[in-house]
Write a structure and sequence with these properties.
The protein has 9 helices and 17 strands. The chain is globular and about 70 Å long. It has 2 domains: 228 residues, 3-Layer(bba) Sandwich (FAD/NAD(P)-binding domain); 157 residues, 2-Layer Sandwich (D-Amino Acid Oxidase, Chain A, domain 2), CATH 3.30.9.10. The chain has an 8-stranded mixed β-sheet with strand order 5-6-4-13-14-15-12-16, with helices on both faces. Strands 1, 2, 8, 9, 10, 11 and 17 form a 7-stranded mixed β-sheet that branches. A two-stranded antiparallel sheet has the order 3-7. Helix 1 packs parallel to helix 5 and helix 2 crosses helix 5. The chain is an alpha/beta fold.
């Protein structure tokens, strides 16, 4: 019995894998691309994301990727004849210390450079727009009206549905158990359903990517680090039209969520876990014994300075998941000079939903043998030298990076 053959095989049916499939199928009609997901599509990091599609961020290399996400959404809405219903409510960046004012001034320069609208607004105006907010300690507030958030599961499945419409083969319940190598060249994958030969193999397996990379002889520079956020009870102080808010002085972000408030913090001690210790089904993993309350208690006083009612408004939901972090908070993805015909769409550093459009286009082009339309030099998977992605030292480096991160 002969092996199945594909032009491209993608391991992982999250937002990255599905975005690559969509962009590849769109730009390479007639080519065979297969996406393999061992569980259900978008069931791990994608569906647990806070899903702020922020374009303007301190890491300028992310911006063109995020802009492509908006382009892809518009294309898919047309193709499917449906709305993804992204919420373009804008975002407020609030600086309450001289250091953060300086960072904010740089951020608005970046916004201008990339042609994005912004304006400085008063504390009073900010409080009118977000009735839960106390902006009295702010020194400078910038409002960017064109930033949005979305339902991350819907976005991931939009990519999958449009990819399928364009001819991609998307399979659920199929696990990849090994990467086939001929010397230093990837030639396909071994799955629970048999062998698939492929011209190009793309690893887009999120927290589990280092396990598959190791099978191909690559030490992949990332670590699964816990992200967590809470959703409050519904209240009239959280109108659905209010903007998202970033509070770099508190390492917190907040956004509307159906009449409630979704907010996340970067706790003082983030938790990294070896990819080997994460179960295949993430829903069975215990992220926190106390729903993150101990972590929240460490910063709640500082958060309350901006969100005074945090103490008395009930918290209805706790959501946690793994994002793949690196010590410098840059993506870890691309090709490798050490192996041929294998690409790594990995290391989302908590920005996966925002950058998924550009990531999809970049890998679709590379898989088709074309140049990457974006500069991935800052994302080089070998930039940290020879590392052991399963070592405690490496895991701690990546955990600390998330704790100190206060911008995109």
């Amino acid at each position: 019995m002969s092996n199945e053959k594909a032009n491209v095989v993608i391991v992982g049916g999250g937002v990255f894998g599905n975005s690559i499939a969509y962009h590849y199928a769109k730009n390479n009609p007639g080519k065979k691309i297969i996406v393999l997901e061992r569980n259900e599509l978008c069931n791990a990091a994608t569906s647990r994301a806070a899903a702020m599609i922020t374009k303007i961020r301190a890491k300028k290399e992310f911006i063109p990727l995020a802009k492509q996400t908006y382009t892809a959404i518009a294309e898919m809405e047309t193709l499917l004849g449906e709305s993804l219903d992204i919420k373009t409510v804008g975002i407020m960046h609030i600086a309450a210390s001289e250091t953060k004012v300086s960072d904010l001034e740089e951020l608005v320069k970046t916004a201008s450079k990339f042609g994005e609208r912004w304006e400085y607004i008063s504390a009073e105006k900010a409080e009118q727009m977000a009735p839960w907010l106390n902006a009295s300690t702010s020194l400078k507030i910038a409002y960017m009206p064109d930033e949005a958030y979305c339902d991350p599961y819907l976005l991931g499945t939009f990519y999958a549905r449009t990819a399928k419409l364009l001819g991609a083969d998307i399979r659920q319940g199929v696990e990849v158990t090994d990467i086939l190598m001929d010397g230093d060249t990837a030639t396909g994958v071994v799955t629970t359903d048999g062998i698939i030969d492929a011209d190009v193999v793309i690893i887009a397996a999120g927290a589990w990517a280092p396990i598959l990379a190791k099978k191909a002889g690559i030490n992949l520079a990332l670590a699964p680090v816990r992200s967590q956020y809470w959703i409050t009870e519904r209240n009239e102080i959280f109108p659905e039209s209010m903007p998202m808010v970033v509070l770099p002085d508190v390492n917190a972000y907040l956004r509307p969520e159906g009449g409630a408030l979704l907010f996340g913090i970067r706790e003082r001690q983030s938790i990294a876990v070896s990819p080997n210790d994460i179960p295949n089904d993430i829903s069975s993993f215990k992220f926190s014994d106390d729903k993150g309350m101990n972590d929240l208690s460490e910063v709640i006083d500082r958060l309350a300075a901006f969100f005074p009612r945090v103490y008395d408004i009930g918290l209805k939901y706790y959501i946690a998941g793994f994002s793949a972090y690196t010590p410098d908070n840059y993506l870890s993805m691309g090709s490798t000079t050490k192996k041929n015909n294998i690409l790594f769409a990995t290391g989302c550093v908590g920005a996966g939903i925002a950058v998924c459009g550009g990531v999809g286009l970049a890998f679709a082009e590379m898989a088709a043998g074309k140049p990457n339309p974006y500069d991935f030099s800052a994302f080089d998977i070998h930039r940290f030298g020879d590392i052991d992605p399963f070592s405690e030292e490496w895991l701690q480096k990546c955990a600390i990076a998330r704790s100190v991160k206060n911008s995109g």
